[in-house]
Amino acid sequence: MLAAGIVCEVFGPHGAALPGFDFALCTDRPGPVATDCGVPLSVAHGLDRLAEADLLLVLPGADFRTPPAPAVLDALRAGHGRGAVVAAHCVGTFALAAAGLLDGRRATTHWRFAELLAGRHPRVTVEPDALYIDEGDIVTGAGAAAGFDLCLHLLRREHGAALANGIARDMVLPSHRDGGQAQYLAAPVPENGQDERLAAVLGWARAHLHEPLPVTELARRAMMSKRSFARRFTAATGTTPHAWLRSLRLSRAEELLETTDLPVEEIARQVGYGSAAVLREQFVRRRGIPPRAYRSAFTRTT
């Protein structure tokens, strides 16, 4: 039920300010579908609804250890074969593996079932620590609420940062978490004064992206040694300070490229890169295209 709620919330209506999607839940046997919370979910559409979909999202289910019906596997293969993006999170990844779509690829799932996935499908390179893995036409994500991260990543990739950030704000969610971020955090919730100071420093850094922000300065503001700060930061966020800042800067650069006419040089300054050349290098390395090409692809016309 959580997985169904996630995709309905992300791809459902968000008011006139944000564009909507042609979204539908499908099953091989339309009608009431049992859920893990005891409330049946009425699904009206059959597999024929997948024939023209641009994105197929496989939701996790309690019976994931049993391969889906042949008709489901055929529908997934057919969708992928005609060019649709196919994605799954949590144990929904098992269905993609059963269809053979993950052979020779990297994939992730809920960390608790990563070993089982790897054992059953040795041709799949399972990365149990990743939040999500983007293989282009196949995208897989970790368990539970990581489905939000997968869906927001797909929105960002296909429709740009402005739309993904707008929907994330509507749902009161972080706009972006990097796919390489750890699934499981030892201390995700502030527990003491150090965590409160860390949270305050992260908020300060977000407001000062135009500054260099060396780790020594962040540690000083958190009143920690550099080593203690780095260790506490990784435990609390699942990533390193450098990776977190890079992701934040690129995310902000994406939004500025989409929503403003600022020159790339000015955007580079505002997000803390010394020059447009440095921003371009990071953008090409992490996003696959230069900033100007990104702007051309995602700038909305009025």
**How many E-type strands?**
8
Seen as an oligomer or otherwise, the chain set is single chain
Q: Detail the poorly predicted runs.
A: 184-192
Fraction of residues in H or I helices: 40-55%
For the largest beta-sheet, the strand count, sense and barrel status come to:
4 strands, mixed
Rg over C-alpha atoms, rounded to the nearest angstrom: 21 Å
The average pLDDT is 89
**Helix tally?**
13
Distance from N terminus to C terminus (CA atoms, Å) equals 38 Å
**Shape summary:** globular
| Biggest β-sheet: strands ordered side by side in the sheet | 3-4-8-7
Order of helices and strands: HEEEHEHEHEEEHHHHHHHHH
Fraction in beta strands: 5-15%
Task: Classify the secondary structure makeup into a structural class.
Answer: alpha/beta
List the helices and strands and how they pair.
Elements: H1 2-11, E1 31-33, E2 41-43, E3 55-58, H2 70-81, E4 85-89, H3 93-98, E5 106-107, H4 114-120, E6 125-126, E7 132-134, E8 138-141, H5 146-159, H6 161-170, H7 193-207, H8 215-221, H9 226-237, H10 241-259, H11 264-270, H12 276-287, H13 291-298
Parallel strand pairs: 3-4, 4-8, 5-6
Antiparallel strand pairs: 1-2, 7-8
Q: Overview of this structure, please?
A:
This protein is an alpha/beta fold. The protein is 46% helix and 9% strand. The chain is built from 13 helices and 8 strands. The protein has helices at 2-11, 70-81, 93-98, 114-120, 146-159, 161-170, 193-207, 215-221, 226-237, 241-259, 264-270, 276-287, 291-298, and strands at 31-33, 41-43, 55-58, 85-89, 106-107, 125-126, 132-134, 138-141. The strands form 3 sheets. Strands 3-4-8-7 form a 4-stranded mixed β-sheet. Strands 1-2 form a two-stranded antiparallel sheet. A hairpin with a 7-residue loop joins strand 1 (31-33) and strand 2. Helix 1 packs parallel to helix 5. The radius of gyration is 21 Å and the shape is globular.
